[in-house]
Amino acid sequence: MPKTQKRYPAEFKEQVVELARTGRSARSLAKEFVVTDNTVRNWVKQAGLDRGTRSDGLTTEEKQELARLRRENRQLKLERDILSKAAAWFARETGSIPNGSSNS
Questions:
Q1: CA distance 104 to 92
Q2: 15 vs 33: CA distance, rounded Å
Q3: Domain range for residue 72?
């Protein structure tokens, strides 16, 4: 069973990231704000990507677009499969098989 991720408010994350930028360690911030030190490091990395100071990953905007495109792709594949099955069913019902090649 996959673990669910706890969502933190953006303001909370920003506060922790700003404190990390002042030189505070991820471990001390994690103890103070009751999150894991890995979470703090991830937030700092993502903030750097979003600000353009890092280039070793996707920005938040890019991640959102990728997720949207994957959802859209999944939906289009589902619709294509449904239409393909419907076309095959209609071909059997009418006794005609559509011509697979075009003579144009």
A1: 26
A2: 10
A3: 59-92
Residue 87 maps to a domain: yes
Which pLDDT tens digits describe the chain residue by residue (104 residues)?
667 777 899 999 999 999 999 999 999 999 999 999 999 999 999 999 999 999 999 999 999 999 999 999 999 999 999 999 999 999 888 877 656 555 54
- Verify that 43 and 67 share a domain, yes or no: no
pTM: 0.69
Burial string for 31-52 (b: 16+ CB within 10 Å, else e) reads eeeebeeebbeebbebbbbbee
